[in-house]
Design brief:
With 326 residues, the chain is α/β, with parallel strands linked by helices. The protein folds into two domains: 102 residues, Enolase-like, N-terminal domain (Enolase-like, domain 1, 2-Layer Sandwich), CATH 3.30.390.10; 199 residues, Enolase-like C-terminal domain (TIM Barrel, Alpha-Beta Barrel). The strands form three sheets. Strands 5-6-7-8-9-10-11-12 form an eight-stranded parallel sheet. A three-stranded antiparallel sheet has the order 1-2-3.
């Protein structure tokens, strides 16, 4: 038998985090802790309004399954009764953590994954004026990879300003569904000249068929259009890469399956995150070991992180300690 504790936490963001859909100053997360009397495993998720989630709805789902989960579920059990999304992510990752604590091993050993090593991660610059994004770029110019939030008529000027002030950084951009097909076609050649390596989700999910009929001078990555392995057939020909996030897949278990299936179907891999603490990032570090693009900067965007948080050194995120997760 298990005991499940669910808590909703609010973490202040450093400044504000702004994308094409809006701005926020706090990261709202839900933490699941599973206890068996001797060991405890934790998982953290981020309810995302874009997918119809809130802390209240996620807590409601978990409360409704409390007795079922406490009876002693497996990761396979929860995949059968919980849809992909934030709630399942928290339970799945808590079960992985609990299994590692019980076995006295690390999650990467239990999952037959290579021992993880530090990874260069993107650092996100929120959507702002070109002048303000230039200031932020200069402040973070030594980071290896900058991710720029896009979503307006000044997008080309934003990228040019960042390139000038961070000449050695790799750059990727994320439109968060904020462009039309015509905007992508107009901007992509210009962005290529500025050294942009990838464009994330330029068009709204479900309205992206036009990407299959055009040249893509800058590779395009599916984010909102890709949640699980079941989405991959519809992405063929439209996208070059998929962004795997545990809050979309519903946990590390499904994320590993999506990664394997995406590679087999010829997609490059990006591993991303929502804005959250290191507890949410920890499982994704294992997933991201072979990814072409790593975007696990969630804790770096917060005003503070939880104890035993992931170490960020010179733009490289280190694997989690057992005290944090796994």
């Amino acid at each position: 038998m298990l005991t499940m504790l669910v808590s909703v936490e609010s973490w202040p963001i450093r400044g504000a985090f702004t994308i094409s859909r809006g701005s926020r100053t706090r990261a709202e997360v839900v933490v699941v802790e599973l206890r068996d009397g001797e060991h405890a495993g934790r998982g953290e998720c981020v309810p995302y309004p874009r997918y119809g989630e809130s802390p209240e709805t996620v807590q409601g789902v978990l409360d409704g399954l409390k007795s079922y989960i406490e009876a002693g579920v497996t990761r396979e059990d929860i995949a059968a009764v919980m849809p992909p999304g934030a709630a399942r992510n928290a339970v799945d990752c808590a079960l992985w953590d609990l299994a590692a604590k019980r076995a006295g091993k690390r999650v990467w050993e239990l999952a037959a994954l290579p021992e993880p090593h530090p990874l260069a991660t993107a650092y996100t610059l929120s959507l702002d004026s070109p002048t303000r994004m230039a200031v932020m770029a200069k402040r973070h110019a030594e980071r290896p990879l900058l991710k720029l939030k896009m979503g307006g008529p000044e997008d080309l000027a934003r990228v040019a300003a960042v390139r000038t002030n961070a000449p050695n950084a790799r750059i990727i951009v994320d439109a968060n569904e904020g462009w039309s097909l015509a905007q992508y076609k107009a901007l992509a050649p210009e962005l290529k000249e500025l050294g942009v390596e990838m464009i994330e989700q330029p068009q709204p999910a479900g309205n992206d068929d036009g990407l299959a009929d055009i040249e893509r001078p800058v590779p395009v990555c599916a984010d909102e259009s890709c949640h699980t392995a079941g989405d991959l057939p519809d992405l063929a020909g439209k996208y070059d890469m998929v962004n795997i996030k545990l809050d979309k897949t519903g946990g590390l278990t499904a994320a590993l399956h999506l990664e394997q299936a995406a590679k087999a179907q010829g997609f490059a891999i990006m591993v991303g995150c929502m804005v959250a603490t290191s507890l949410a990032m920890a499982p994704a570090v294992l997933l991201a070991q072979d990814a072409e693009v790593v975007d696990l900067d969630g804790p770096l965007l917060l005003a503070e992180d939880r104890r035993h948080g992931l170490v960020d050194a010179h733009g490289r995120v280190h694997p989690p300690t057992p005290e944090l997760w796994g």
